[in-house]
Amino acid sequence: MKKSVCLFVVNGLGMGNSTRCYALMQKLAPEMEIHAFTSGNGTRFLQDKKEVCSITESEAYFYASKEGGISASGTLASMAKLYGIYKRKTQKLEDLVNTLRPDIMILDSEYSLGPARKRGIPVVALNNSDVVVSEYMRRSDLPSSIRGQFWLVEYWDYTFHKLRLDMVISPSLRPDPPRHRNFKRVGVMLREAFEDLTNVADKGPFPSPRSMKRIVFMLSGSVFASQIDGSFSQLPYQVEVIGREGQSEGNVTYHGKTLNSMEILKRADILVINGGFLAVSEAAALRKPTFVIPVPNHAEQVVNALALQDLGMGYVTDEASVISRIMSLYEMDRWEGLSGDTPTVNFNGSTEAAEAVMDLVTRHSAK
């Protein structure tokens, strides 16, 4: 029997979207023929994955930046340029849909629905903007600096997905119900290798800071990667840095941009990451004390970081103070405020998402 065809349309700005989609691709590949339409980091990450039958490269959307963070006003001022990218991407996607004739299209931080809609192809999105909106409305401890990005980007994103998609798969660290019926809440979506690690990760309290040997800085693969203020060499650990080039010497090793960080993360005792949902999810699965540096002015990254902190798994910090925070805890020799136990987190989100996608394809085919 011929397999159903699934087309993933993935924003390639950072690495998280592609990695999250790959977790779903791994679950769908035995039953479906997988193709990808992506850009930048997405193309680099997926190009050697056996589950992917073809990759078509596209232009990438972007956030405007200011002083290393996201500029909501700058992004708004770039709407004409972004619209031009949207038109060109849509035409290229139109040609690809004509060629592949997919049975379903899955979007991650992409918005070109027209080619699928005019052919009656069901469209699913991976998107947890409902989590961001609910947390923003619920919490009183959020910085005012994220207000512009939240209302101009995150809330618009939530509204779009609420109204325009056939189904939105919304992974979350917490088992809260979705904000709207169009969102299907699932657990954390992990690559299969990380799912295996959740079964062997140590449970219970973390070992003391002074008993630990290795710290890994996993900085974002996007243009908003944190620029840590301070010298890595002053830390009393073996330091490994992913995402930045540098001269490896003494206790510091630079790995640059690497597409497979698994082995480096497995040998870490402590993690320092940005606040993308995939990075936060993998840190929770690894059960290691984690310092999260949200990209400045980015509402989703702040919410993700606070969610990990609420679980007792990590600290929310920033570029300027992360080194001194680590040193302070080392001097105290205790992880103040951390528990290391995450009994409420569901790490089965990839399987749940795949089941939802297959069910939608089956129901659509039966019509």
Question: Topology of this protein?
Answer:
Layout lengths: L3 E7 L5 H13 L3 E7 L1 H7 L5 E6 L7 E2 L2 E2 L1 H6 L1 H22 L3 E5 L5 H4 L5 E4 L2 H10 L8 H18 L2 E5 L11 E4 L5 H7 L15 E5 L19 E5 L9 E5 L5 H5 L3 E5 L2 H10 L3 E4 L5 H12 L3 E3 L5 H11 L16 H18 L1
Parallel strand pairs: 1-2, 1-6, 2-3, 6-7, 7-8, 8-9, 10-11, 10-13, 11-12, 13-14, 14-15
Antiparallel strand pairs: 4-5
Helix pairs in contact: 1-2, 1-13, 6-7, 6-11, 10-11
What does it look like?
It contains 13 helices and 15 strands. The chain is an alpha/beta fold. The protein folds into two domains: about 5-185 and about 350-365, Glycogen Phosphorylase B (Rossmann fold, 3-Layer(aba) Sandwich), CATH 3.40.50; about 195-330, Glycogen Phosphorylase B (Rossmann fold, 3-Layer(aba) Sandwich), CATH 3.40.50.2000. Strand 1 (about 5-10), helix 1 (about 15-30) and strand 2 form a beta-alpha-beta unit. Helix 1 packs across helix 13 (about 350-365) and helix 10 runs parallel beside helix 11. The two termini are about 20 Å apart.
